[in-house]
Amino acid sequence: MKSFAYYPGCTMKTTGKAFEQSAFAIAKVLDIQMREIERWNCCGTVFSLTIDDTMHHMATIRNLVRVEAMGESEVLTLCSMCYNTLKRANEFISSDPVRLSELNDFMYKEDLKYSGHVQVRHLLEVLRDDVGWDALKAKVTNPLEGVKVASYYGCALVRPEGAGVDSLEDPTVMEDLVSSLGAEPVQWQSRLECCGSYHTIGHKELVFERTERIVSEALKAGADVIILSCPLCEFNVGSRQPEVAEHVYGFKQIPVLYFTQLMGLALGIDPKELGMDDEAILKLIREKVEV
Amino acid sequence: MIELGTHTKSRRDILDKVERISEVDVFSCYQCGRCSGDCPSINLMDILPNQAIRLLQLGEVELVLASKTIWICASCFTCTSRCPKGIDIARVLEALRQVCLRKNIDELDLNNIPEEERERYPTIAWVSALRKLSG
Asked: Can you give the residue ranges of the 4Fe-4S ferredoxin-type domain (chain B) (predicted)?
């Protein structure tokens, strides 16, 4: 059994519950142990891009200190934005002894120190590099034959260079996952395009435009479903679809799932354990595969 | 009429700060326009990303600081990933936002968010919006 410290991030406990629930369900089948970090805090969600801003990495790095306290050397995340923020802050702080000591100085009252040696991993990386596609295929009891899947990477999973789980411009990890589940990955245009991210709060028209394009491209490529790995992308590309339909004449909707939910269906897990109570999505998949 | 190409001391100071905190030399841009061609939110910007860099080169710092462009950019890093000169444009735009935010000038006014919408937004959206758009 492979064991990891698990960093959930805030949204896994609110609108992204289904992501966490389905991740735990598939981890059990694949013999991956995820131990939630005690007293974790928000990672900050976005990596601070200015170089004179060590304090903004404080919240992020504090979580890595907790990982070390658990005796673990690797931390596993599900959310693309947490992954990006944790990984980049870790690299930024750990690669420079002066910054690392500056950051540790902020925590002097708590007597905490970060060594700089924790490795940040995303579940998709673990599936590819630690579990392996062949081992995953061997666990599939319910191959999703005929289901056409559009893998949506968005930004945080692949960009910028060095921060992603896969190639910058031509990632394949999600498509390889889809193939391993017996489903069919579709080739499509918008898989690396931004969903509008936090503009969902102040500029929702921007997000509607992005969602309209992303969903239309997926449908044009013949996809039945979009899978993704970020609870903010899910909100924008998934939950916002009915509103987009009100604004854009002729807009057609498509089901959106976390990749762990699609995996769960192929691994024969009860949809209820995957946080899937949406009958419309299940109906669509059932038309093709008996779940 | 705006007189272009004047590097006054105060403009130079802001530009120096932008270059220092972003670690980007804006003068290395040769205006190929790739950043603007690949930007997914270009239609909502009033100055194209390559134009913003050009204006900085010309010393027109205030024009760029007053643009919608710096706030529309959500740091998706498409421009950064594809710039043939290796310029981290996303970092330049963040530095410009920081020049404003560090003066405590907020871009996001929470009073404008309808109350019935507030509860349904995911935590991740709130935290990232407030980190990017408030000082």
From this structure: 20-50
CA A80 remoteness from chain centre:
4
The answer to the question of residue B1 being in a domain is: no
Question: Is B20 in Cβ contact with A203 (below 8 Å)?
Answer: no
Mean pLDDT for B90-113 is 94
Residue B1 Cα, gap to closest chain A Cα (Å): 32
B95 and B110 part of one domain: no
Domains detected in chain A: 2-123 (1.20.1050.140), 133-288 (3.40.50.11810)
Q: What is the pLDDT of residues A189-223, one digit of tens each?
A: 999 999 999 999 999 999 999 999 999 999 999 99
Contact across the interface for B77 and A197, Cβ inside 8 Å: no
**In this predicted structure, which of A71-85, A274-288, B32-46, B49-63 has the lowest mean pLDDT?**
A274-288
Under the banding of pLDDT at 50, 70 and 90, the label for residue A61 is very high
ipTM for the complex shown: 0.93
- Count residue pairs from A and B with Cβ separation < 8 A: 125
Work out the angle between the directed axes of helices A97-106 and A58-69 (0-180°, nearest 10): 90
User: Based on the domain organization, do B96 and B128 belong to the same domain?
Assistant: no
B40 and A232 within 8 Å at the Cβ level: the answer is no
CB contact under 8 A, A10 and B123: yes
